[in-house]
Amino acid sequence: MTIEELKRIQLYRQHLSMPADKITVVRDLCGLQCQFMANAYHSLRIRCADDPDPDCWGEGLVKNWSLRGTVHVFAEEDLPLFKYDDGFYRSERWLGVTDHGRPWVSPQRERFFADYIVQSVAAGIETRDDLRNACRSVGMTLTEESFIFNGWGGLLRPLCERGFLTYKVQEKKAFAIAPEYVPMPKKEALTEQMRRYLTHIAPATLRDIAYFFGCSQTYVKQILQTLPVQSFSLDGAEYFYMGELNGNYPPIPGCVFLAGFDQLMLGYEKKHSKYLPQEYLRGIFNLAGIVMPGLLLNGSIAGRWKRKNKKLEIICFRTITLKEKKAIKDKAQSIWRNDLKTIQYLAL
Fold first, then answer.
1. Domains of the chain
2. What is the pLDDT of residues 196-212, one digit of tens each?
3. Fewer CB within 10 Å: C terminus or N terminus of the chain?
């Protein structure tokens, strides 16, 4: 096994060299992280055999809190898997909120607003701003509002985590009533999540797996003992995987416009990534916690990109050759077609 062969396997499994349908992609990759909805849509576009319709691409998908305590888009049928049984499914046990011993919201008021928000969404009040106004109309105080509509989730987050609501799959924050489902037992769900990772994102090291799931390597080892895992050594590290490997994988793509928060960047520990030269680390993973959209050339990050008003801007981390610029132009035109007029190259 060589590093190039490893990349060919990983890129194939992540559907970057072998596209698939929308549901297959989101299920195989354990969802798509989506602080910004445009990232999730682009992540699908570069992995799907057919371009997802921008007007209805969210059909069959839901948006909710998931891996690493972040918001992901995933298949609605996987609600029991990612919103597994943690003892709080449809729970109305509200404990109130305090700040250094001072009560912000009493348990009674928290339950009142939880019920009111769910009823309001069921009645067709869906956006965050409209829900805020509705709660104000029934007496929500400024102190209560600072918790209920807190930017980090407030009361809306546990309502989603407990299976009352889901986010709508769209850029503007809006909510829908979650379909009823039977949550999987926690251990069974976490084992299935890791099985998908090992089958569709791995081969990967213990460090990679722990990074992706936000857990300890000790816990990863415990789960691996319950699965039919295989492994091989490369550069002194042990790589684990499930499923069969063969030598007949497509070549590494010449150019890939990765999405922000792309699974190729999040799937493997960033300081040991085979795709991200460490001198470019902060060009992709900035100190504010944002994962920028990377430009992958021949299996290695060479820059990042952004597109606005039919203009594609490439921030170069190194010199881009004429041959690479042609590959960039060809790939960009295949993705954006008539929505692209100019490409500009800028130094980091």
1. 97-177 (1.10.10), 255-347 (no CATH)
2. 999 999 999 999 999 99
3. C
